[in-house]
Amino acid sequence: MKYLMFVCTDTEPDTDPSAAPDIEKWVAERDARGQRLAGDRLAPPTAATTVRVRGGELLVSDGPFAETKEVIVGFDLLECADLDEAIDVARNHPMAYAGRIELRPFWNPDA
């Protein structure tokens, strides 16, 4: 089952950063196990462009549309047997300590 893992900042990170795993090791382990299909960091929110169409009119604005302190800073595409495995992958990501991780399964219309 495929999951998109959003890697996000958080206004309340763990106060013990020494507990966080090394990102290079996390990537290497997930790649070796075939759990991580793709992933990358994202440019800062100031580089975002929001696109909407309202009443047939194209509206383009700079920056993210949502007013939030937490932002998505990266993503990973995961292949896991189930949600429990995806949670285990996410809990070992360094940003689970310094930020937050959001997991979303890909849409399955047959489920």
Automatic annotation (TrEMBL):
It comes from the Bacteria. Residues 7-105 form the YCII-related domain. SUPFAM superfamilies: Dimeric alpha+beta barrel (SSF54909). InterPro entries: Dimeric_a/b-barrel, YCII. It holds the Pfam family YCII. Belongs to the YciI family. This is YCII-related domain-containing protein. It comes from Micromonospora costi.
